[in-house]
Amino acid sequence: MLTKIEIENFKGIGDRISVPIKPITLLFGANSAGKSTIMQALHYVGEILERQNVDAGRTARGGSGIDLGGFAELVHKKDIGRAIAIRLEFELDGESLKDYLADDKYVNAFEIRFEEDSAALGDTDYQFNRVQSFWVELEIGYSYFVKQPNVTRYSIGVNGKRLATLHYKPGSIYAYIESIDEDHEVFRVDSVPFDNPGGGISVNIATSAYARCGSQAPSSKLSNAPLQFKTNAIYGALPRLNEILEFPDLVPDPSMYESGNGHSSHDEKGPGGI
Question: What is the dihedral of CA 258, 260, 263, 267, to 10 degrees?
Fold first, then answer.
C-alpha cells in the first residue's frame, strides 16, 4: 500500500514536500493549490516505470484525459536545469511478494558449500517475510548532450534503510551503482548445516558474491567497488525491471561518475544549468 509521496521541483512545487497517503485520502484546497500536481506526479512515475517514458505527454493510464506536456512543462518553473525528484513509500508483507517465486528467473532456495561441509540457506519465503516496507525514488534531469531528459538517479530502500542508489551520466552506455549497503538485512540469509539441523550460520549473500571477483576487487567492501551495467539514454539509471540485472565489469575508476549529494549531476551546463 502506498503510504507517502515526496515531490521536489515538479510543476508548482519547488522545495521538497511530503504527503502522507492513507487508505482514504482527500485533497482540499483552492484552485491552483497543487491538488492535481500530486496525481500528475503519480502518473509521471507510472509512465517512467512501466513505459520508460521520461518525457511523458499523454499517459497510458490517463488516456486523452491527461496530457503532462513533457519534462519541460513538468519541471518547476520550466527550468530544465533543475532535477525533478519523486519518492514513493510503501508498506507491504511477504505474502504480497510471493508471486515472484513462480518465475524461474528468481532464486527460491539457496545452498552454500564449503570444503568439507554444506549448508542449506533459508528460502525466499523467509527472505520476503522480512520486507515490511520499501521506498523508491526517481531523479530526472535534462541532458543538453543528448537533448532529452534522463533518469539520472534511481534509489531504493527497504525497511526504512537505504539499500542502493544507481547513477547515470547522460552520454554513457553504462550506469553505475553509486552506493550499496552490503550490510543491509535483506542480504543476510540464515543457514542450517545439513549434518546439524539444530545449528546454523548467517551468510551475507552480497559480500559472498562479491568475493568471487577475486583479485579484480579494489577493496574488501562492495560499497567501495562501483559496479556498472549496460544501459542507454532511454533507461538511464532505471534498471530493466523485467530482467535480471547483470554487472559485467568492475568500474576501474570511480571518478568516472560523481557520488553526488542527492541532486542531479548534469553532463554539461546549459541555460539555467548547474
Answer: -10
